[in-house]
Structure formats: C-alpha cells, structure tokens
C-alpha cells in the first residue's frame, strides 16, 4: 500500500511545525524547506485544519501552527484525515465486482492486515516521529531552536 502525496506532505508539514521555532510557519516556508509545491501544500494545510490538527491565521504574524500537543497527534489520525481510500483490495471497498467476493478468505486477511497497520500508526505520535529535533531542524534549514 502506498499513500498519496497529500498524506506524505501532511506528515512533512507536521514535522516542520513540530521542530519550527514557536511551532509555527508559513506555507511558503514549509514548501521551501521540503522543496515541494506551495500550491499543493495549501490544500494539505486546509485538510489538516479541517481535521483540527493545525490552526491557520492570515495576515502579519499569521501562518500555520499545531492545534494540539504533538504527543496527542497520531500518525494514524493524520492518515485517516488525509486519505480517502484504504481498500487495498477491491473487496474492502464500497463497490465489489469481484466474482469470488464473499467466498474467498482474502477479505478477512486484508482486513486484519489493515487493522494491524493502523494499530502501529495509532501508537506513533508526531512527538515520536519528530524525536530527532536537531537532525530535522538541520535537514529543514531551521537553525533556531524551538
């Protein structure tokens, strides 16, 4: 299973905010630090704000900041907020056209695998994945401690 760039960029935004001075930044600064499209990040930030993971403010002194303590934001919650489809096989989705759906055991196996996958992601917080503060700050060009 591979997540969309939308979900990937969401984690990048959150990592940036976790280690940024004041745990805040502009979309332009985050895009530059990760060398990704500013336009795409605007949509990502809107999704994160809609999920209550970040807060945004316009104008002077505005930007994006974490809405909650990083230890309470799980990777699983971020993935659920940013992804629309976790049907790794057709029979897990809403539309089922497979001729053997309901009589083979694949649905059960993939369902359990997906549950295990999210169990791991739900154990990992933003605080956990951003534990290397100095390394992240260096990689993102953030020299001021936050």
UniProtKB/TrEMBL annotation:
InterPro entries: TR_Rrf2-type_CS, Tscrpt_reg_Rrf2, WH-like_DNA-bd_sf, WH_DNA-bd_sf. Its cofactor is [2Fe-2S] cluster. It holds the Pfam family Rrf2. SUPFAM superfamilies: Winged helix' DNA-binding domain. The keyword Disulfide bond does not apply. Keywords: DNA-binding. It comes from the Bacteria. This is RrF2 family transcriptional regulator. It comes from Actinomycetospora rhizophila.
């Amino acid at each position: 299973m591979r997540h969309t760039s939308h979900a990937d960029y969401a984690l990048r935004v959150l990592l940036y905010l976790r280690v940024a001075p004041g745990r805040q930044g502009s979309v332009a600064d985050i895009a530059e630090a990760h060398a990704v499209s500013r336009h795409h990040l605007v949509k990502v930030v809107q999704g994160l704000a809609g999920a209550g993971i970040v807060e945004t403010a316009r104008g002077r002194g505005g930007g994006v900041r974490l809405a909650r303590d990083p230890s309470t934001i799980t990777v699983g919650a971020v993935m659920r907020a940013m992804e629309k489809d976790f049907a790794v096989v057709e029979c897990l989705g809403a539309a089922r056209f497979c001729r053997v759906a309901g009589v083979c055991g694949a649905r059960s196996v993939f369902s359990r695998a997906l549950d295990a996958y999210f169990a791991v992601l739900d154990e990992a917080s933003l605080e956990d994945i951003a534990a290397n503060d100095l390394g992240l700050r260096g990689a993102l060009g953030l020299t001021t401690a936050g």
